[in-house]
Amino acid sequence: MEVSPGVLEFKAGTFTKSNTEYLKLTNTSDGPLAFKVKTTAPKLYCVRPNASIVEPGKSVDISIILQGFSQPLPADYKCKDKFLIVSLPCPDLDNPAKLSDYWPTLEAKFKSELIQKKLRVNYVITDEAEDQAPMGGAAGAVSDGNNVEKSTEPIDPRDPNPEVTSNGASHATQPAAAAAAAAGIAGVGASSHSNKSLDNSAYQHELDDSNAKINNLSNRFDSNESSVDEKEYKPPSQASRVPSEEPVAGVSMPVAVALMLVSFLLGWLVF
């Protein structure tokens, strides 16, 4: 069983995020080999697969996933974690799902042929800014290369309005687009100013109408109060005065009352 690389090295900046490295196991024997991967920090690493079978002359890749730390690691941090790869012959087993059940039997039967490979773990701690700088430069170079390649695409000479290149507009239409954008901005500003002027004039017109209505109502209210005061305090005229005692059918009120009283007494005495 060959294992590569000889040292499991993680390059994860400050190690606050998860990172994955790979091991390659190669079966150099004439028969199938069963293997298991063990570590001194099982809560920190996730191994897939951690146990399986490798056929003769075949290889298998094992992913080692390092969980991120809650705090950035200092630059002088030394990792003491280790991995152990154990392999055994398994001539009568071809199902990796049953390996965990048959492992004690294989270990007892082929104890003399058991092979162990130890791996040391190393952390390469760098600043995140240093890691991102080369990536940004490479991305910029790729982007520039794409722009150059796309900008050389042929344009149909029969097209009177060449429009599209890779960056959205041809060089011929860029000045016109800039002028149109400037004119659009100016038009928006002028439109906004005219709208504000119209709004101010409309508000002033409504305010004048409201003031006129208020003055009209105030004048009407004052005139109504004056007419009421005149009606209340104007002395009655001679023509409107009515005598307190008006004759009833040519007979004064006292005489009529006396006649009614006499009639009542006569009726009471007679009947």
From TrEMBL:
Residues annotated as signal peptide: none
Compartments where found: Membrane
The organism's place on the tree of life at top rank: Eukaryota
One Gene Ontology term of the molecular function aspect: FFAT motif binding
Biased composition (Polar residues): 214-226
Alphabetical keyword list: Membrane, Transmembrane, Transmembrane helix
GO biological processes: endoplasmic reticulum membrane organization; endoplasmic reticulum-plasma membrane tethering
Listed Basic and acidic residues bias regions: 150-161
Lyase recorded as keyword: no
Region (Disordered): 134-176, 214-247
Sequence ranges assigned to domain MSP in this UniProt record: 1-124
One GO location term (cellular component): plasma membrane
Pfam families for this protein: Motile_Sperm (PF00635)
Record membrane topology: Single-pass type IV membrane protein
Name of the protein in question: Piso0_004569 protein
Native organism: Pichia sorbitophila (strain ATCC MYA-4447 / BCRC 22081 / CBS 7064 / NBRC 10061 / NRRL Y-12695) (Hybrid yeast)
Lineage: Eukaryota, Fungi, Dikarya, Ascomycota, Saccharomycotina
